[in-house]
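Please fill in the sequence for the structure shown.

STRUCTURE ENCODING:
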């Protein structure tokens, strides 16, 4: 009994002294560090020598070809600039540039502009389809309905791009959303080059139209076909017929 008390008493005394006893003492020894403090670590000090590198210099020059963040790439000054073609995408300077014109910002003066500043060709739209499916569809869905796979896995705020609001939104504002992101959507400016952003918008417009088609979109000579039973439909009825077979 007494021994138990003594052991506890001694332990408590040691603990109290350990906590309060040595406060305010000055020592030239480095303090005890269970996890080493970050001030004492291997690191390069500005303008200080370092024997890690053969030349003994700590600070290094950037790797050749390094582009500083925010650097405005020189724009291609070729005939292509004036009459952009699909070659823009393989152009070595096909760019992420941030100029101040409509093509680079989506803004005309201080308002969002609208219109695709590239020639809208089948190639452009197909390029846009490919890019949309790679960079947008996982969130917004292949038909831009806002039901991409990412939404089912937690990003609940994904919106449908088939909304009236987005259908009426100017191309320039959508360009800006792609470039800089919006609320919970991150920016795709750093990963999608400018002509691809426009290609995506051109394709998105086609997708929007496909889901909001009016009778006026059907050429008059084909309207009668709409009432016909779907004889040209792909043979999707067949798998159902197959399923019946095992039941027998
Ligand atoms: C990682 C998921 C994700 C991807 C990929 C994505 N978006 Fe979004 N997008 C969102 C979310 C989330 C919102 C809703 C933002 C908010 O909270 O208002 C949104 C909103 C938008 C809007 C509406 C902006 C507004 O003004 O309300 C447009 C337009 C849009 N996205 C276009 C695109 C296009 C085009 C792409 C492909 C280049 C794309 N998004 C890729 C998640 C994504």
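FILLED IN BY: designer on duty
SEQUENCE:
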């Amino acid at each position: 009994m007494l021994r138990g008390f003594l052991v506890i008493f001694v332990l408590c005394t040691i603990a109290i002294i350990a906590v309060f006893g040595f406060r305010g003492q000055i020592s030239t020894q480095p303090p005890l560090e269970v996890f080493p403090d970050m001030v004492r670590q291997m690191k390069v000090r500005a303008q200080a020598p370092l024997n890690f590198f053969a030349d003994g210099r700590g600070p290094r020059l950037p790797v050749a070809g390094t582009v500083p963040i925010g650097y405005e790439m020189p724009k291609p000054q070729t005939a292509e600039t004036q009459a952009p073609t699909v070659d823009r995408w393989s152009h070595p300077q096909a760019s992420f540039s941030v100029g101040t014109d409509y093509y680079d910002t989506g803004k005309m003066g201080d308002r969002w502009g609208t219109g695709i500043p590239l020639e809208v060709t089948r190639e452009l739209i197909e390029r846009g389809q490919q890019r949309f499916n790679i960079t947008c569809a996982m969130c917004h869905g292949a038909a831009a309905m806002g039901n991409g796979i990412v939404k089912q896995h937690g990003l609940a705020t994904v919106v449908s791009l088939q909304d009236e609001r987005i259908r009426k939104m100017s191309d320039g504002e959508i360009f800006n959303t792609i470039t800089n992101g919006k609320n919970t959507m991150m920016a795709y400016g750093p990963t999608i080059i400018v002509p691809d952003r426009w290609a995506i918008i051109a394709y998105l417009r086609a997708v929007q139209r496909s889901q909001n088609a009016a009778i006026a979109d059907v050429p008059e000579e084909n309207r009668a076909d709409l009432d016909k039973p779907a004889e040209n439909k792909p043979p999707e009825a067949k798998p159902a017929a197959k399923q019946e077979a095992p039941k027998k």
